[in-house]
Request: fold
Amino acid sequence: MLDASARPRRLEWQSAVVEAIEAQTPTVKSFRLRPERWGGFRAGQHVDVRLTAPDGYSAQRSYSIGSAPDGSGTIELAIEEMRNGEVSPFFHEVVEVGDTIELRGPIGGHFIWDVSIGGPILLIGGGSGLVPLMSMLRHRAIVAPEIPAVLIYSARRYDDLIWREELFHRRDKDRNFRLIVNLTRESARPGLHFGRIDADRILEAIAEETSWITYICGSNPFVGAASDLAIAAGLAPETIRTERYGG
Amino acid sequence: MATRGFVGRRPTDEIGNRLPPGQYLTEDFPVLSAGPTPHVALDKWSFTIKDGVKPVATWNWDEFAKLPHVKLTRDIHCVTKWSKFNTAWSGVMIDDILAEAGIEAPTEWTLAHGHDGYTTNVPTADLVGGKAMVATAYEGQPITADHGGPARLLVPHLYFWKSAKWLTGLQFTKRDEAGFWELRGYHMYGDPWREQRFTGD
Reply:
């Protein structure tokens, strides 16, 4: 096994077999992939995916890994279908179990979490910005469940919550993990909030601990608003790592 | 390797010929950064040229505004795959900054510094000779904080992570010192046309 934290090595394109596909929400499917040579990764990293047409035309996109580094030799991507997109509709409408696609990775050495970074960790995700945060949560549950973690997760509707049942299950079973959910386009359900993330949500999240390490992922407006709120709540800018989708 | 069932949506030749390999055209202007957006007040802003650790010249905002400003319209290419055509910037060419400082570039390598602690390395030859500027306006307006305002580096012929946001200075270095992303697996040079995204590309 290669150590993913060692000096960067050349990233070769490799084929990966689709082992499972699951509809997570009306617009998000998850894909379990088995790359032919996989040296592991760190929670929060992404892969580049390449699709090639018969005439050689190809398209590339980056997708975050949602699974934990678990030694299984597989990774799980969760891909939101973008209207008018070129690659995500292909994944949603064409890709089947047994297909092979090309990828390379893992990529990214900043928006990552492992036990050496420590905690407590505050994760703030908007929409499919949950994906790399989920990798961190799952990884933490395996290697360091004693580290306190809070996830503030904003989605449009209840049905848009990716890995919803797993998140609720983790909330119920893991006393060091707190889940705060905001639904922006559907009135509140018991235990969930209605509306955008606001200052109160952040203050509620960070009340019981200090020295938070914060990860924020989502669309640019979401990340901009959430990081401004986090700073206003007293978190130091240098302790906040961001990743913006749509770029 | 052809992907089963993939046809793709080819751009026209006119667009395709301007797209480096692996890139697609976007009409909006995505934002990428490693941390929160700093909001830098103009009366706190300064820009410093250093030779190694030694400051050579510093300008505050009002002084910098008096330097000769020019316009530069270029296609830009982000390592995350989007490209944007005809982005229109104005600012001060690095050539003019050096001339105002009364120096020739002292070393072959430069490290750009951002207000947020970000750094990125660029060969000095890629900054001079009319290739790069410190941009202070985009499409005729002050650059927004999201996009690196008040001032950002613009090196349009390299992947856009080289165009450091919230620029505070340029430091000439004796060696090619890796910056923030270069230390994290991204390419030391970053030529989009040679698809130099990552170490070893």
In short: Helices of chain B lie at 13-16, 61-65, 94-101. Chain B touches chain A at residues 1-10, 22, 24, 28, 30-38, 78, 80-82, 116-117, 146, 180-181, 183-185, 197-201 (CB under 8 Å). The CA atoms of residues 96 and 174 of chain B lie 22 Å apart. The first strand of chain B starts at residue 24 and ends at 25.
